[in-house]
Amino acid sequence: NMRGYTQLRYNQPLSGDRVAGDPELKSVGDKSIGNNSNFFLRRVRLVFSGDINDYISMYLQPDFATDNGDLNFAQLRDAYFDLHFDKAHEYRIRAGQSKIPFGWENLQSSQNRLTLDRADALNSAVPSERDLGLMAYWTPTDVQKLWKNLSKKGLKTSGDYGVLGVGVYNGQGINKAEGNDGMYLVAHSTYPLELDFMGKAMRGQVLEVGADAISGQFNRSTSSCSAGTPCYLNGEKVTSSIKSSDSLKNNSEDRVGVHAVLFPQPFGLQAEWNWGAGATLNAETRTVERQHLSGGYVQAMYKIDEVFGTKGTMIPYVKWQTYDGAWKGSTNAPRVQVDEVEAGVEYQINKALELTVAYASMSRTNIADATKADYLKQAGGDLIRTQLQVNY
Amino acid sequence: NMRGYTQLRYNQPLSGDRVAGDPELKSVGDKSIGNNSNFFLRRVRLVFSGDINDYISMYLQPDFATDNGDLNFAQLRDAYFDLHFDKAHEYRIRAGQSKIPFGWENLQSSQNRLTLDRADALNSAVPSERDLGLMAYWTPTDVQKLWKNLSKKGLKTSGDYGVLGVGVYNGQGINKAEGNDGMYLVAHSTYPLELDFMGKAMRGQVLEVGADAISGQFNRSTSSCSAGTPCYLNGEKVTSSIKSSDSLKNNSEDRVGVHAVLFPQPFGLQAEWNWGAGATLNAETRTVERQHLSGGYVQAMYKIDEVFGTKGTMIPYVKWQTYDGAWKGSTNAPRVQVDEVEAGVEYQINKALELTVAYASMSRTNIADATKADYLKQAGGDLIRTQLQVNY
Amino acid sequence: NMRGYTQLRYNQPLSGDRVAGDPELKSVGDKSIGNNSNFFLRRVRLVFSGDINDYISMYLQPDFATDNGDLNFAQLRDAYFDLHFDKAHEYRIRAGQSKIPFGWENLQSSQNRLTLDRADALNSAVPSERDLGLMAYWTPTDVQKLWKNLSKKGLKTSGDYGVLGVGVYNGQGINKAEGNDGMYLVAHSTYPLELDFMGKAMRGQVLEVGADAISGQFNRSTSSCSAGTPCYLNGEKVTSSIKSSDSLKNNSEDRVGVHAVLFPQPFGLQAEWNWGAGATLNAETRTVERQHLSGGYVQAMYKIDEVFGTKGTMIPYVKWQTYDGAWKGSTNAPRVQVDEVEAGVEYQINKALELTVAYASMSRTNIADATKADYLKQAGGDLIRTQLQVNY
Questions:
Q1: CB B121 within 8 Å of CB B294
Q2: Which CATH number is A137's domain given?
Q3: Residues on chain C touching A62 (C-beta within 8 angstroms)
């Protein structure tokens, strides 16, 4: 089978482009946030998937909007195989490049997600959500059925990554060559509770709760600064971001996360949080050292069916997120502080077409380029963000 | 649906490789024109397209012959969606990366084009023909039907981009990150006139005429030359092509173009011209300044059906083109002078297989590499050009 | 039609990572052989193929595991068309990028190959097995039928590249721009002999024998070393690997190869050898000069059907290979010495899933990076190698 989706975005800063000297507001989740930006293809996906036989299924997903100097090259997101041990598909091994089961929003497809980007606190654990390895999942038949029923009602599940899952993976990040002998371990749990037992008021309501943990080692690269193009750290020009590159190797990271999701029938709530410690650039001593990190988000939404008397659905939402800790997916593993409120509405005009319009007020640490003067400076701004998504 | 086509080329300079010291003949339309060249995959295309529902259709076209250091990487050409307002598909919005409706030959697919490359004068307006934005098109039902009938007869239309179209797009060029806040505007018109009213001699003949305009702002990059690898400008070695990089930003460009096409039944004529002004490198002052540009082409062709008693079709053609103006798709936006005559024949052996053999005599400004001594020098030569095209 | 396969690998050196100072063991056939390595996607392939009409068929195969800075970009392997001259498909021209018919194992798909990598001696003739050009093949109907019957029995043929084939191609290597006007020539022959005439003991046994030759010219690039990052040659630091770059152009190469394959019913034998001469880096004089090369492999295997009473098949094998000569696919065309023994077993669990586990003892010249001190040093080691292959 072939399917896919495309996201076309247009972000407009209400506060205007930055004035010279002010740090530029950039976001790791959307390269078209920043100065001098107009239309942008955030995701162009094509999925080739299918059951090869009763026990083996395949899933291959390239993205056609990958930046590699120029834009819009094709690069793999997923390339995995489910090896099922039973015909009911309760037990399976997933082999290849696939999503790492840490966090609930991380596992939910961007095709389904209400907000434009994932929360940084959880996404920083697994940048681009995927890595290469082996995962084992267990999903009882009744939970498979419940998740399918929720999807049929138009509710946004995070997909089937088991009620329990454990895995081992490289840990260097999506599409990056492994850099050390150490691997990451991940453990995942989630369970959708039917709240009918709480009385008539809660009939049909579903609350999903769970917890995850990861632990592992990764290597970081450092910025290539020189006397000619110095880096900016802590207000000074330096010729190297890191005093000794020894501190870039075999950095350990450990995290635990929790999540709770009340599916919107019609009112919903969603919250996640994670805590941990990991390799982080200390800009004063210019070393990479183990520092604490924490953050999460809370989101409320309301599902309105048959808007304007049509088959369309509208879901207004508001999301608050915060994160303070390392962004390991970036060179030097710099420490970032993120605070953001996003209020918007997703309008599902029909099955093929979705329009999202949101207002976002954000404050983020600029980690775009170590050779620019605003590196590691805090930048803030208000934006109107729009996205047209077509599902095919 | 899936379909596609591949073009395998072989160009042979009759005048031989250049002698040392002479400038090398290179063409922006075909990288295999130049020294040391043999077989070349010019285009390897795969199109995924279809109607998602009555009002929404999708079109996704990667090219598998993109140079990104090594050859033959996959990169997006088109990724757009038609959002129709009526079931007859007379009115629609096209959202995403698609062809910018400036010029007639620009809009015609390379799968259909008779000549090997597009004329530089018109193509310089929108290098690679595509950009990211929103277009609105209007195509009355009778014109839709006329174009379809022409295609059925084996006549090469330019595809349906409306009889009227307007659009807004980034303007930085295909698969390039937007570089400024300004956008490009485009307005397009074309109309196929049935000439039956002119009497029996013109029965069934169709003449398509129209005019287009674009206006917008773009940013240019400049060559990275240094003391170690100097650039060559105006006969001198310089360490930077541009004195101040300020002149590279927010360059304005404005163009108008006209076209007229008599479809070959059996004799056809096709001509386009455009005039305008845009940012252009002044090699003497080493600044980018607004200069005039103009150019176009005239092409004659003759369609012979059932050649050799088979179902094959042969179309001999001759094309003359000229252009004097900026090539904005190249670093520094250098001024080029192009004069070319191409005489050839396209032999459609069957629906799947086309062989084109052409003789070309061309004179072009070398803009391949600013660090080489023949940069901006005029080079000329005669070539035999061949192309095998397979449609699938 | 669409089909494909993916190979997920995991190599574990028994001898451990190299000690500092020792040269690192790397292999041209598998980038995940080396220090600091875990899971690796060796091949992620998708094939689009089909008969367009009775005389023309197409084959388009991108690989989604190409390294281009980051991993897993999509790049072309094959893009060719068979132009048949007769309905029986005995005579045809293959145009485009396709496998060069030199060697038997080179032509066999990696999807079918028993061992993890191809033998270096033969593969060094055509790195990545493919190039851009025109080939002519002749395959009599009875041989077409015999090869199909062997495949149906689960025997691994090398695919239909004719019993005779000749071709002309660029010769610069897969997905590399042509670098000179000279082209390569290739001639290929192979024939599967039914051994029934040798008596009852040989009933149904098939022995395929043949010989190939190539001759041509290619250009080599050289390592970019400088005073800041010197190269290591012959134990010395140098600022350039080659004294004069003249010796990198128009290097000639000539090879002949022979092969013999007894298909395993149940016992099989396979052997190939090639001899020749080609451009090779002389590390002492720092020039590229014509030197002799030779090498090949011998492989024995045993096919066990219905293992454990299932429909699975198991094929234990042992392969010995050696090569001494230039590796033209690498910068500088360095001389390598390879000696390797691999003993393993391929377990075809079902049509979709294959697991290969092998023990390999290898000695190879390190040609990974001329700026590292172990460049051109001989490295050895023992590995356990595993591969999970999914066919879809």
A1: yes
A2: 2.40.160.10
A3: 64, 74
